[in-house]
Every structure is written in structure tokens, then in C-alpha cells.
């Protein structure tokens, strides 16, 4: 894998030739299969609307400053347009509502938060992308029988408000019930669950669908998403997942950071290498998905995937991304990269793909691998000057030097630590930039363009 050489040529600027498609007016009554066929691949805007500060796990509330309390910049439209220029056309806006709504019995969502969520939805939606809006780090939906009635009540109250807020949006807006619902703190939290867990998750998913369908507008025919137990990809969760009854506009959601020791594991068993041996773990998951969902014509999506940076393992991550995306593409399954905005640091998950401040692709080789795996033309635009390095970290360095820089990790004393949903028991400048990166047998041509979106 080559480092990127930067050649500055003053006075030149480029504009993307990839035209953005505005969302259609009204509502197209399409099937989940049709929707999935229109999707290339996507990205999760993580550690942003889902972040919370020290008041998050009560309902006393706090303002929308929570969006930046895990270290990311305030979201702006340029993040989405840059990604769409690179063939991303679906975005999952992980959103935590706890701390942004009042106490029982109404559980009213705070106006300021609803307004901000809608603004971020519009950044992507108004540029023609598909948008998934969910409930992310909640503490009220744990999958136990003795919690079911409370969870059902809050599900109905929150989703009635959310669905009514967005009821006139077209089919490009998708609602997803929950993130990774499970028996939190139990021995079966991450190892596939049990009868209680499967049953409660299936019931809550069903309650969610019924709630949305009652809210008017286009919500009676909007395509929805629901996760498996813990959104996990294993034999038990797949076998015991039940689609909500009497509704043919629901997509199942699976999250799979596999092979686990390569993609996610923070422990001593972690490896920076993607090998023929550990690839079998990923293959097992994909084979199970094919057998249950694809072969039966049941709609499914990989709502989260990714492989974090481990030292200088970019080449392995590139091979892995192309393989993973190509296998799912062959089955007609889109997938969305989990981007938490983190690029370096110890004790953190390093899943950053785009420099949100400057709207630049930090890992063009990985994006190119995803394009290739999906069978698209390989053409990466708006890359950072040096692959793997944020442009702001190069300000004091010579532009023509090959560089490897560590990005400092910032902390915010007003924020809670980032949630790590692990599965421990399972496996603006006017220069032209010339970039050389290796992606299998193909090279990626990358252009630098002015960015007017800063925060």
C-alpha cells in the first residue's frame, strides 16, 4: 500500500461532476425490494445525534449541545454532499432521544431537539439521499418481560411524535424502531439471546410498526426497518426473528463487525490482519443471511458494518471492504459503514472515514474498495491530502513530504464516555491534489475541491 504523495498546484479548483438528485415530490409506493435496489451503500453518522452528556439517562433534559459532546463537529450539509459525490446514497442518523423528552405520561420530545433532528435529516434528504431515523442509545427498551409494558408505552409515545413530525416526507425517509435491543446486563446480552429476549424484541418491533401506521400522512405505506435481537448476525437471532405481522413494508436490520477480532474486538485477541482463516467467520454470517432472508425473498439490510484502524493495516481493511461489499452486492443487500468520527487514539474505536469539519474523505482507498465491491465505477472525490490523515493535521508540515501523523483525541468533561456496543463473547484551498492509492488492481483518482461548509 502506497502512502499518498501530495502535489500542490496553485490556482486550480474542481467541481464534482456527480449531480445530486433531489427527492421526488409526493410519495412513491414502492416495495422494500425496490428501495434496496436503488441503494449503493451508506454511512452511519455516529457519535453525533446519538451522543449524550451527563444528564442523558434521565428525562430532565439538556439542549442540542449534546450533538458535539463526544468530540465531533456540529453536523453540516457538506458532509452528506461529499459522501453522495462518492456514491453513498443512504444515511443512518443514529439518534438518542433519552434526555430530550419529558417524564411520563406524555414523554413529550423537546421542541429544540426535534427541530435539530429535522435539520440534519433535511441535509441528506433534500439532496436526494435515503435517510434512516432511529432511536439509538436508549435505556427504556431493555428486552425483559417485566420491562415490556413500560417499553411499549414509551415506544408508542415517542414514535407517534416522530412519525407525525415527518409524516409528509416521501419514501426516501425510513424509520427504524431501535438500535440493538437486547437483555442489557444479562448473560445472554451478546451471545444470541434467549426466548424472553427474542419475544420482547419481536413484540416491540410489532408495536412500533402499528404505532407508525396510525399517524397519517404517508406513514401508512412508508418503508420501515426493525432489528433482530441485538441486531446480531448468528444462527439464534436469525432463526428467532419474526417480521411484524400483516405488514409487507418492513426491512430487517443486521449489524455485523466481522471477523470480530479484526473488525471490532478491543481486547488481546484482536488482530490487524484479514486472513483466509478469519474470513470464515464473516462467510458464516453471510451464508446464514442468504439462507434465511435472500433465498426466501425477505428484505434485509446491514445497517452497521466497519473495520477499525489497527496500526498500519489499511491494506487489510481495503481487501476486507471490497470482499464484504461484493458478497452482499451479489445478494442485493446494501450496507452502511459505522463512522464515529474517530481516527486515532488508544482505547477508542477508530472507525472514522470522513473528516466532517472539512468534508474530505480520509480513506479514499476504502471508499474505492466499496465502490468496486458494489460494481460501480471507481472514482473517489474530495480526498484529504494524505490518506489516513486529516488535513488540519498537515498545516505545519511540508506538503510534499510523505507523512504519518497521529490525531490527538479530545475529550469533553461535560460528556459521558462513548458507548461501545461490543460483543465480547462473540466472535479550503485552490490546489489540485494528485493522489496515488492502491486498491487491488485499480487506482483511485482523487480531486480536491473548495469546501464552503465549515463549523
Give an overview of the whole structure.
It contains 10 helices and 12 strands. The protein has 455 residues and is an alpha/beta fold. It has one domain: Glycosidases (TIM Barrel). The strands form 3 sheets. It has an 8-stranded parallel beta barrel with strand order 1-2-3-4-5-6-7-8, surrounded by 4 helices. It starts with 31 loop residues before the first helix and ends in a 12-residue tail after the last strand. The model is unreliable at 1-20, 400-413 and 424-455 (pLDDT under 50).
Strand order of the largest sheet: 1-2-3-4-5-6-7-8
Question: In angstroms, what is the radius of gyration?
Answer: 21 Å
Summed up, the domain count is: 1
Q: CATH top level?
A: Alpha Beta
Brief summary:
With 455 residues, the chain is α/β, with parallel strands linked by helices. It is built from ten helices and twelve strands. It has one domain (32-443): TIM Barrel, CATH 3.20.20.
Topology:
Layout: H1 32-37, E1 41-45, H2 77-85, E2 88-93, H3 111-125, E3 130-133, H4 148-165, E4 173-176, H5 195-213, E5 224-227, H6 235-239, E6 250-255, H7 260-263, H8 279-294, E7 300-305, H9 314-330, E8 335-339, E9 354-355, E10 360-361, H10 364-373, E11 438-439, E12 442-443
Parallel strand pairs: 1-2, 1-8, 2-3, 3-4, 4-5, 5-6, 6-7, 7-8
Antiparallel strand pairs: 9-10, 11-12
Helix pairs in contact: 4-5, 9-10
